Automatic annotation (TrEMBL):
This is Fe2OG dioxygenase domain-containing protein. Residues 143-244 form the Fe2OG dioxygenase domain. Gene3D superfamilies: B-lactam Antibiotic, Isopenicillin N Synthase, Chain. The keyword ATP-binding does not apply. GO terms for molecular function: dioxygenase activity; metal ion binding. Belongs to the iron/ascorbate-dependent oxidoreductase family. It comes from the Eukaryota. Keywords: Iron, Metal-binding, Oxidoreductase.
Amino acid sequence: MNSPSHRPKLIERIREAAATWGFFQVINHGVPVSVLDDTVSSVRAFHDQPLDVKSKYYKREEGRGVMFASNNDLYRSGAACWHDSLQAWLGPEPPEAEEIPEVCREGVIAWGSHATAVAEKVMELLSEGLGLESGKFKELTFSESKVFVGHCYPYCPQPDLTVGITAHTDPGVLTVLMQNQVPGLQVKHGDVWVDVEPVHGGLIVNVGDFLQIISNGAYTSVQHRVLANSSKEPRISIVIFFNLAKWKGDGYYGPLPELLSPEKPPIYRDFTLKEFVENFYGKAIDSKSIIEKIKIYH
Ligand SMILES: O=C(O)CCC(=O)C(=O)O
Ligand SMILES: [Fe+2]
């Protein structure tokens, strides 16, 4: 990702992938594979512990600290999905190190900073792909608000009757994901669900709703889901969501003015953070994202 002579090509490839697929995989990202493997093992070790140890982290209030739960949307959704998750809100207000379970503390902290470095590089390329300065996304604080999520999809004896995570789009700016070798993630491309084969050492990056909106539709936030795990080995995936942080402007979010012109009018109306948050927390993860609500029909 670093060679200057490849940069224009890289910008174009990432722009194209983010526009058409909304998902892409990065390799040669500079994070040692041993860091990825160690983090996956330590999250697995957390989930392998007896329930009475993990239940110390049970809670339902989101937004800060550390939380262990099965489904964030348990009370908003018609059915629960076949996974457990350990979450840590790493920014803008990081938890005290002691709040993070000891068995995976080092992994959570290390992955948090490596994933941020990768996300910032990708954000530079995505920003340039829109014709903006490479530092624009960082200036807009897009890498500041971040949540670590260590998912575990245990063996499911009847995988045809449930799913690991229902189809949804991610709400924020960008998601960086790594996984062990157990498959399950699928991405929607047109009307087809496409399997994402795990690549050892590869990182998956996907566009969230907020990035689709601020790019005025140039980048696409696509639906994805995880099938219930039919293998005896648990599937581990570790995600960092980069969400909305503070905004430099007047409290309203919307398509970046730099991208708009009489030929390219906004296709989304502006909205407030309150509206965004209420929309997210008021629904099950598989129901309509804010994108549908704020679309302008020309
Ligand atoms: O486990 C995965 O591969 C995907 C998880 C996911 O989509 C999410 O946490 O939003
Ligand atoms: Fe997701």
